[in-house]
Amino acid sequence: MILSSRIGRDRKGFASVTFLVLLLAIMAVGSLLADVAQLYAVKIAARHYLNLSLRAAAGQLSLDDLKDNRIVIDEPAARDRFYEVLRANFKLDGTNHPLPGSLVDGPVEVCYFRVVNSDMLPFSYTYGSYSETITRPAVTGIIRFPVKVSFWGRIVSSGVPDSTDMYVHSTVAPELIAEHL
Questions:
Q1: Cα–Cα distance measured from residue 25 to residue 10, given in angstroms and rounded to the nearest whole number
Q2: Looking at residue 11, what is its pLDDT?
Q3: Is residue 178 part of a domain?
Q4: Cβ atoms within 10 A of the Cβ of 164, count?
Q5: Is 177 a member of any domain?
Q6: Which structural domain, as residue segments, surrounds residue 76?
């Protein structure tokens, strides 16, 4: 009788310990998945912000050339508009450092920005392992910014710094819609 009651208690204890271990494992995996999802969401939002900035830059067309049915992007105006919209979208100060409520955890560095007009086509460039050939007037840019690594990310990967750099690239060409009068 004593032996059978002891086995019953041991099984209940074993089940409780197993449940707690599995619960902790599931919580850890869930936290890691949430961290990866958060980093992915930051990258997508940053790509949208960069696209909006490049679209604003690509919209700075030379009106004189446009009258002659030529698409020419005004480079100084495009650069100014790009930085203006980039800083507004990312909530950055004048030196590209984040303001409170910003998506990024440090300064945004514009690694590459180029206005490509018809006289340069086709235009090819390489940045790191990325290369692209542009075949029509466009504006292209690559930005880099730090993103904080989460608590679980630092535990799983010992020796990893508190933040990691994320790169985002995009190329945008102006789109004109002809109106027939």
A1: 22
A2: 66
A3: no
A4: 14
A5: no
A6: 9-172
